[in-house]
Amino acid sequence: MIDALGPGRYPSGSRTRGDPPLPSTSPSAPAGPGLDRARAVLREVFGYPDFRPGQDDIVAEVLAGRDVLAVMPTGAGKSMCFQLPAIVRGDLVVVVSPLIALMRDQVAQLRTSGVAAAALNSSIEPDEARAIRADLEAGRLRLLYVAPERLGRPDTLDLLARARVATIAVDEAHCIAQWGHDFRPEYREIGGFAARLGNPQIVALTATADAATRDEIVAGLFARPPAVFVHGFDRPNLFLAMRPKAVLRRQILDFVEARKGSSGIVYCTSRRQTEDLAAALEGAGIRALPYHAGLDGQVRSANQDAFLKEDGIVMTATVAFGMGIDKPDVRFVVHAGLPKSIEAYYQEIGRAGRDGLPADTLTLYGTDDIVLRRRQIDESEASDEQKHVERRRLEALIALAETPRCRRVALLAHFGEVDDQTPCGHCDVCRDGVETFDGTVAAQKALSAMVRTGERFGEVHLAAVLTGESTDAVVRFGHDQLKTFGCGKEFAKTQWRAIFRQILALGLAEVDMTAHGRWWVTAEGVEVLKGRRSVPMNVATVQAAGERRAKGRDAQRAARVDAGLDADATRLFEALKSRRAALARELNAPAYVVFADRTLIEMARARPSTRSEMAAIHGVGAAKLDRFADSFLDVIRST
């Protein structure tokens, strides 16, 4: 068995700072004894049969002593890229992590697997902190997790200088970039802290970083040119769906009720919405908890802990929740409004299905979201150049929402993956299709209504004019006498909402939120009015019957998440989950620290009857085998 607990336990490969770097290994053909030892650790300590795609390239470079920037999709195993080298080399790796909860859970997972790991943060009791310092100075720790603020404290830097840090691993590295979607100023200081520690090896990892963000990370963090790895962004286990808002609360309730009993996140656009939706879900018999920055700190922490440790909880949250949340069995992510950008969207949906099992995503959006995001960009204190970048990012997200083609193809094209244009068959566009039509005449009618009403009115008033509804406002302003009054009766009001949204997305009109939401025609819209430009449209109807049909499809698909387990295996899976929950409570840790769902599903299928058979199950390493095998074997024998 490989001993993962202490330093200097390997006959070869261990090194300390000051030793010459290990021989470099080509990332195109990783090989050599260091990588072979890493594979052995992967199997014996963590219970994984081999590297995931791309991991071996990165681990080889880290073992060779090179600085690395790795952009890998969520769930691709970024943490293993610095955890394995720490164990193989017997070095101290300091992991800069953004959240205390994330540190706590990752340390618990490592310790459960027999790896010497700890975290220094404000939640640590004084006695434990003293023990951690003693372990550091004695060279007993392989991984130490700290927040960037803690890393910069003089006492922490002095302690780490004595402990001879070999590597600083920067998790969620996109936080360094001012143009990123989760910018944290403290991350900008990490490069300076590293210099004070003698410029140890830097390994930076993130799931989302476009070219501009990668350049800023390299410039702000590394003292030496790093090896840069940008791996595929595809998350094939995620079902991608985006729909116009109709009756928002009903849409969300329908979606979540079809997945009752699963863990999920509903991202909300305001603090009040988090609490309102949590109450609505609770009223429907679904355990839901709110999370936002305005909650009492103890309540917020308790809600987060419950979500991490228990199954079947839905967190209704602002985007303050989620960065670094390492819960592998989140089965769905819903957006109750348009995300900030396509990068933020990718990061947030990436919190679902980290275990590789099927998971669902749904984004609900409307004209109000597009207007709000544009106004936020325009009113920000960013430079004109940065505003331009942010507008382009928003336009890319709107295009993804309105696309008539495969969403996965459109999403991957945004990140530069354009080799394969084959529809994925696993998004709502591929599944349901999109009705397209020549919307030029419809756009001309809508734009004409704006012009003829003096470009002074909002969407509701304009839709009334187009459908021939004599509202008080329409009659008062004499708009029932216009040529455009009633010229759009071929569409319902809900359909006109979709048409206005697409006009806005295409840049044919703008909305001035400072003037009661008035719509006005842009230069591009004038070209349409003059017949110089055609307007292809996606018919985004939002009729109640359509929503009922969508609900039925969602329920049918959600029921297939655990496909492959027959009735007996399903009963065993539920029994194994119950035993896991009990063990997790004893450890005061999330359930997945014991075993992930994927491991329990494999147990339920294979029904191992001996320790040796249990050792062959994915995710059952040596330490977990010794600690948990008998308990789970008892469940298998008795179920």
UniProtKB/TrEMBL annotation:
Residues 248-398 form the Helicase C-terminal domain. The keyword Lipid metabolism does not apply. The keyword Chaperone does not apply. GO terms for biological process: DNA recombination; DNA repair; DNA replication; SOS response. One of its GO terms (cellular component) is replisome. This is DNA helicase RecQ. NCBIfam families: recQ (TIGR01389), recQ_fam (TIGR00614). Residues 1-34 are annotated as: Disordered. GO terms for molecular function: 3'-5' DNA helicase activity; ATP binding; DNA binding; four-way junction helicase activity; hydrolase activity; metal ion binding. Keywords: ATP-binding, DNA damage, DNA recombination, DNA repair, DNA-binding, Helicase, Hydrolase, Isomerase, Metal-binding, Nucleotide-binding, Zinc. Its EC number is 5.6.2.4. The lineage of its organism: Bacteria, Pseudomonadati, Pseudomonadota, Alphaproteobacteria, Hyphomicrobiales. The gene is recQ. Pfam families: DEAD, Helicase_C, HRDC, RecQ_Zn_bind, RQC.
